[in-house]
Hints:
The structure is a single chain. It is built from 18 helices and 20 strands. The protein is an alpha/beta fold. It has an 8-stranded parallel sheet. Strand 2 (about 55) and strand 3 (about 60) form a beta hairpin. Helix 4 packs parallel to helix 5 (about 155-165).
Amino acid sequence: MIDRLEPKLKPRLNVLQPEDVEEVYSAAMEVLERTGMKISHPRVLELLDGAGARVDTGVVRIPDWMVKDALRKAPSRIVLGNRSGERSVKLERNRSWFGASLDCIDYLEPFTRERRKFLLEDCRITATLLDALPNYTWGMTFGIADNVPPEFADRMVLKEAMSHCEKPMVFCCQDIESLKQIYEMAMIIAGGENQFLNAPTIVMLVDPISPLTLADESLEKLMFCAEKRIPQICYGAPQAGSTGPASFAGAVVQGTAESLSGLVITQLVRKGAPFIFGAFATVMDMRTTIFSYGAPEMILMGAALAQMAQYIRLPYFGTAGCSDAKLPDSQAAAEATLSCQSATLSGANLIHDCGLLDHGCLASPAYMVLVNEVLHMINQFVRGIQVDEDTLAVDVIHRVGPGGHFMEQEHTLQYFRRVWYSSLFDRSNYESWLEQGGRRFQERLREQTLQIMEHQPKPLPEEVAAELEKLAKHWQ
Length: 476
């Protein structure tokens, strides 16, 4: 069980000065007012025009006052729930909640260490791991199943994930019909609309197309979620130097503008619709042209966007625990540690892509386990140092005195359990390590992954599982 008590002084990371945050916000407003967003959906154009935006040949210019009005209407706190209806993930202030990855093409088999296409049955394994690993409090749909019809893959993968994990799920879907059927699945699992709204088990992720475009299909889904009060994330992906400005501040400005355009539309559809702000701003590696998932610049811009979210009082969808490495190796561990630590310290709320390798292409159960261990370390770090009369230990120091030891003190018995002991990282000396078989890190990681894969998630109630199967028959 993870200790969710808030420390009195959580360490913080700020990469922007307060005046910088205001400058970025003003620049984003300038982009929305002067440049505008490319939108062609008739109903959305009608809504924006009627509310006061300037609509001209498919470009909508949104004034600052409309954004401020939407910010006043949108909730600053969103609570998600698990399958049993427990309100388990509370997106507020600078509280951080980590989740696993989304829509990978390939899968790194933990038994054979073979890389192959992601299959539907792989989702059962990744969902089972997600259910078992304590530092992941929510999840995503892991991969694009290569062995099912592509027109049904989004629903089938999510059904598999929700059947083998109790935690809330973030998903993408291909069109409005898929979304409606996913919503129907969520209603079946929750037991009705009232129960769902009390503790939503699903969150939809919709992507603006950078730069500054909202496609009709995305807008259809965005409006449906607003109408049904399904929490949703509007999450553009400006790539610095390619689909966004090469300057880091410029990429943050564009990402902010793109996400806030979605906010305005959701609040016009339904006042108070739950909305999560964010953008995946990273760099285009000019040597490889890849969209980097491990770049320090991605981490830096993510921290800046977290500050923007706190400034406008919206929950923030962050990115961490991912890597450009091809295996769960030293590079992957270094990139995951830096990104997870920075995301936590910046106060990002819903942090995704943990366990993702090869710049978003590869799902790896072993890497999910590795990142979970990194999060153990980070959770210990952000608890900070408690300072009070008992922890200062002046009386204990006096009682032991010069030349003594603290091994037999009641104070030691009380506090030594607050130290974190890893089940994966090795602290033994060289001789002890050899005596225990001299197992290298990769061997220990594989062994622990296979052990955790034996976890048995709590099954869905039989009547719920039967209803989902009945629904799924209409997809084929």
